Structure formats: structure tokens, C-alpha cells
């Protein structure tokens, strides 16, 4: 079951400053507010979702996270988008059979063709009126693609609330670290190959 969660964060306020220029303005579509694509996916956990310990399998939650984030990325970019990476999937509490799990996703940040989607996972007993607790978080990067699977430009996301602006700024930090980590590992591998150390694959 999916439900749009668009009312939250739809207030006014200045657009965030985009420190990284994502590409020439001419080849990019218009901007879109965060609230336009924010989505919640809800699912009741059953016995078929359990691991050997009897709690819900982490992979089941990760699938829901990827599904919700993919819906958000598709809605924001107005077309197909693929998962480029999933990082910082954190499981805070075990999820149990009979839990109603809500997976809340939104675009935190956009580049030229990529979008960071932030996800919060909440759980509540399906038949009790106790408040939901947060059981996990994740950050995924999606790339919008054209009919040939090539990256295509996305609208810049416009965070409109202080919370969304904070999430945008935090996403920029993660983006900087992802790029730096990839560059450092690539350089290490190239150095090892040049030194004749990695020749067995
Ligand atoms: C994701 C994919 C489209 C990237 O293609 P590519 O030829 O490497 O293109 P680029 O290098 O231009 O990357 C496109 C964007 O994705 C980002 N990106 C690519 N790989 C990434 C990664 N591992 N982590 C984070 N961002 C990544 C780039 O930074 C770039 O962002 P920007 O345009 O906003 O600057 C391609 O690798 C792919 O199709 N992967 C398979 C996706 C898939 O099948 N997912 C699972 C099923 S949906």
C-alpha cells in the first residue's frame, strides 16, 4: 500500500543554496519541491518475512526501503530511475511479525542526474494504538536514466523547510565523502597495479 505524504514540509521559504553546480541550466528540467515526491510505503510483517531468529529479515526491510526510494526517485525525476548505491542502512530495533512498518522516503539532494533519497523506517503493532517507533534509516543514491539506460538530468530539489534544508546539507556532506572514498580507492588500485602487486584477476 502506498500513500502520498505530501502535506508535510510544503511550507514556503527560500530555496536552498546549491553549492555544486549540477550542469548547464539549458539541459536540466525545472525545480521541484521535496514535498512533491515524498512517499510512505506501509506493509504488515507476516511469518514469511522472518529470519532464523524469528524476527523480520533485514533483507525484507531493505527491499521495502529500495521500493519506497525508487518510487520517490521516479516521481521526482518524472521517469525511470535505478539504484546506484545504498549506504548507511542502519537497523535500530528488531522488527517483529505483526508489526505495521512504514517506510518514509524523500529526495534529500539532487545532482545532475543523481538523487540522494533518505528513508526512515517506523514500526507499530498492527492492532494497537501505540505510537510508531523508528527502527531504521537508510540513504540511497538513484540515477535517472533514459530509454537506453543512460543518465538523464533531473529537476533540482528545492528543500522548503529547515528540516529539509538540514537534510540537503547533510546529503551534500555524504556526497563529498562518497566521491572522495571512490577516488581514493580507485587511485590505490591503480597504484597497486602500476607497482605490479595486483596481477591475479
Ligand atoms: C547508475 C548508473 C546509471 C550510472 O551510470 P554511469 O555510466 O556510471 O554514469 P555517471 O558516472 O555519469 O553517473 C551518473 C550519476 O550517478 C552517480 N553515481 C554513479 N555511481 C554511483 C555510486 N556508486 N554511488 C553514488 N552515486 C553514483 C554519479 O555521481 C552521477 O551523478 P550526477 O550526474 O548527479 O553527478 C549505472 O552504473 C547503472 O546502470 N548501474 C546499474 C543500476 C541498477 O541496475 N540498479 C539496480 C536495479 S534498479
Automatic annotation (TrEMBL):
Residues 1-39 are annotated as: Disordered. Pfam families: 4HBT. Keywords: Hydrolase. Residues 35-148 form the HotDog ACOT-type domain. The keyword Nucleotide-binding does not apply. The keyword Cell cycle does not apply. Belongs to the acyl coenzyme A hydrolase family. This is Acyl-CoA thioesterase. The lineage of its organism: Bacteria, Bacillati, Actinomycetota, Actinomycetes, Kitasatosporales.
Amino acid at each position: 500500500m502506498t500513500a502520498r505524504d505530501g502535506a508535510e514540509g510544503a511550507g514556503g521559504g527560500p530555496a536552498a543554496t546549491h553549492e555544486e553546480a549540477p550542469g548547464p541550466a539549458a539541459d536540466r528540467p525545472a525545480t521541484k519541491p521535496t514535498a512533491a515526491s515524498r512517499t510512505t510505503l506501509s506493509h504488515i510483517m507476516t511469518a514469511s518475512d522472518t529470519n532464523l531468529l524469528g524476527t523480520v529479515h533485514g533483507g525484507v526491510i531493505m527491499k521495502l526501503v529500495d521500493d519506497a526510494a525508487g518510487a520517490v526517485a521516479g516521481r521526482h525525476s518524472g521517469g525511470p530511475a535505478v539504484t546506484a548505491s545504498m549506504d548507511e542502512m542502519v537497523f535500530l530495533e528488531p522488527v517483529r511479525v505483526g508489526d505495521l512498518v512504514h517506510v518514509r522516503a524523500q529526495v534529500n539532494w539532487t545532482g545532475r542526474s543523481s538523487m540522494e533519497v533518505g528513508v526512515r523506517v517506523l514500526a507499530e503493532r498492527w492492532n494497537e494504538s501505540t505510537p510508531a517507533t523508528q527502527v531504521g534509516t537508510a540513504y540511497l543514491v538513484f540515477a535517472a536514466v533514459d530509454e537506453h539506460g543512460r543518465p538523464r538530468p533531473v529537476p533540482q530539489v528545492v528543500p522548503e523547510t529547515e528540516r529539509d534544508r538540514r537534510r540537503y546539507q547533510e546529503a551534500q556532506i555524504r556526497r563529498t565523502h562518497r566521491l572522495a572514498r571512490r577516488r581514493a580507492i580507485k587511485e590505490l588500485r591503480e597504484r597497486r597495479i602500476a607497482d605490479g602487486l595486483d596481477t591475479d584477476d
